[in-house]
Amino acid sequence: MSITTRIADVLHKSVVTTFFGLFCYQGYQLGSKMIEGRTGDGPQQQQQQHQQEHPQEGFIQMLRDKYQEEYTKYFDTGHRDWYDKDDNSFLDKVPKPKDYQPGGKRN
């Protein structure tokens, strides 16, 4: 065997060993993250406990409620979903910021 063949063999073994080690390390990291996510003992779970209510959470919930209301009357043919030219009663149903923001204040 020549010296170049021996050097090539050593380099090949070192590259293969390095790739195998990286593969094992990534498997370990992925496995630990999956176990951490399943049990909920990670720092992300603790951060969620200390997190306050999002300022737009009420608005998003209000949109969900309006969607659910519209969905339930979608197949009902007896409801009126058009308005007369001079009828402003639909403006009473328009959500206002004080209805959905925490504390009723604007940012």
What does this structure look like?
This protein is 61% helix and 0% strand. It has helices at residues 3-39, 43-50, 57-72, 97-100.
How helix-rich are the residues, as a percent range? 55-70%
Q: Quick check: average pLDDT?
A: 78
Kindly report the oligomeric state of this protein.
single chain
Beta-strand proportion: under 5%
Report, as a whole number of angstroms, the end-to-end distance: 77 Å
Shape: elongated
The count of strands amounts to: 0
Number of helices: 4
Determine Rg (CA atoms, Å): 31 Å
- Helix/strand/pairing class, anyone? mainly alpha
User: Which consecutive residue ranges, at least 5 long each, have pLDDT under 50?
Assistant: none
Largest sheet: none
What order do the helices and strands follow? HHHH
